Structures are given as structure tokens and as C-alpha cells.
Amino acid sequence: RPRATPPTRLTAAPPPTVRVRAPGKVNLSLRVGPVQDDGYHPLVSVFQAVALFEEVAASQVLPGAGVSLTVDGPQAQLVPTDSTNLAWRAAVLLAEHAGIAPDVALRVRKGVPVAGGMAGGSADAAAALVACDALWETGLPRTELMELASRLGSDVPFCLLGHTAVGTGRGHLLTPAMTRGEFHWVFGASERGLSTPAVFAAFDDLTHGAASPVGLADDTALMQALRAGDPTALGAALHNDLQEAALSLRPELARTLEIAHETGALGAIVSGSGPTVAALARSRQHALAIAATWTAEGAADTVWTTTGPAHGARHTT
Ligand code: C5P
Predict the structure, then answer these.
(1) pLDDT in tens, 108-125
(2) Where are the transmembrane segments (predicted)?
(3) Range of the domain at 195
(4) ipTM of predicted complex
């Protein structure tokens, strides 16, 4: 009997690849206590993930090839592509933890402003952890991934978790928060980022290292607004203890906040350590109007409209 001819393969099969998206965040409230001996500040923060995502693709490589990394998307040229990149560090940390070789090709696609106080780099780390865990079939329980995440940076656990959550400690001890509905956000980002340690240092100067201790009770109105899905009440309750410090380093952000208020924003704050400014809008239409006004007035280098809450680190289909 004639044997069947095997099909001719014209191109090499692409290497197995896992794709994971993780969100950026805005701090709806950020309360900062006095600096501790370890250099960190105790925080109480209410985080909300927003639908601006970083995507990390992790592809199989030959054994012994090690880690490689490319970055593309908006502002990609501002991101390091060596072993200092948080996605790279995440891959190395997971491999060490699992006792395997860190062999992977990582491709990062930016969707969150770089060095903007929105945890874009932390989202890369969260996505890389989940992607490599799947690619290498290390199958870590969620709690172990969260623990590795907190070693990579204070905001990485939240980028894994997503949605809306209250963070304490360095911001890494998380409790999910109940929310209703969808909130409309506008973000005005600057070409030039701000260094988080520099903003915390400015905070120490402004408070003479003696900031008031932080507590959960201060955000009762905010939590109520979230549960009710009331954007007006949420706008009024937005709070950021780092805002003054960020403004001391970037005085021009005061005008960006002012324009948002003049355009009817329900609330406007510096996002995290800045310099991105976040404005809460009544609707998608209103968000676009605020974005257009910022652009027309030259108050932001790039504007982004989106919604929150958004999901945490998740495989893309
Ligand atoms: O944890 P992560 O590496 O993201 O923090 C970056 C820097 O931000 C720290 O080195 C520290 O200067 C500052 N930070 C802080 N208190 C926190 C979180 C971060 O002082 N709770």
C-alpha cells in the first residue's frame, strides 16, 4: 500500500507563547505616614485598576538562552530593556523560586504612561509573573505569586489582583473593596516622568519627617461612594497625600488640575506619585471633553480616557 506523504512544513512553527495583560492603577485615596527605619512609608491606599493595560508575551526559547526582552508601544523608548526592567526581574525571581533556569523571550507592549504614578512597570512585573508561571508550568498558587509580587515592588500585588482594593503596609497588603458600576477617567501624562523615591523624599521634607499616622477610618465616605456607585461622591472624596510633594517638584501640574475642575471634573488629583493627573468625569463624553481641553491648553503631553475598575493580570484570548 502506498504510504501517505507527510505534509510539507513551509515555515517553522512559532514557539509556544503565553500572553498576559495587567492593568495600570489610580490611587483613589493615598494616605502616607511618617517614614520608617527601612526607608518605606506606611500607607493606606484605595487602588482602582483602570482599563489601560500592559501586555507581556512570554515565548519559549532554547534551554540556556536566558532572558531577553523587547518593549514597544507609546513611550517604549523610555523603558530599560536590560535586567533592571521589572518584567525581566519578575522572570528571574520566579525561576529562582521554582528552581529552574530563566529561559524566556519577553515582549512588553506598553499601554500605561511610563513613570507616571500609574504602576505601568508594576503591571509588567505582574503580567510577566503570570505569563512565565504558565509557560514554565510552575503552577504557583496565587498566594505565592502575590508574595513574589510584593518582593518586586509595592504596587505589583495590586496589578495582579486588579478591580478595587484597600492596600496597607507598603501598599502591598490588599483587601478587595466592593464597588458598583463603572467610573470614567481621564489621565493627563507628561513626557518627563517623576521618580517615586524623589516624591517620597519631597513628602518627608514638607512634613519634616513627622507626618501623622495613617488609619482606615479616613476613607469612610470614599468607600460608601464606591459601594453606591456614586461618581459625584467619589469625586469629592478623592485624596492624595503625595500631591503637594509632586506639585513642589512640578508646579505646572496645578494648572492641569485647575483646568479639570473648570471643565466640570467631579474630582481631580495627581495619580500616585505623579506626574500623571487623573480626572473623574460624569460620562465617556465628558471624559473626552476634559481630554480635549487639556490638549487644547497644552496642559498634558498625552491624554488617555478610560474606565475603572478593570480586571487584574489575566491571560488574553
Ligand atoms: O516598592 P517600590 O520599589 O515600588 O518603591 C519604590 C520607592 O518608593 C521606594 O524605594 C521608596 O523610596 C518609596 N516608597 C515608600 N513607601 C512605600 C512605597 C514606596 O517610601 N510604601
Answers:
(1) 999 999 989 999 999 999
(2) none
(3) 183-308
(4) 0.96
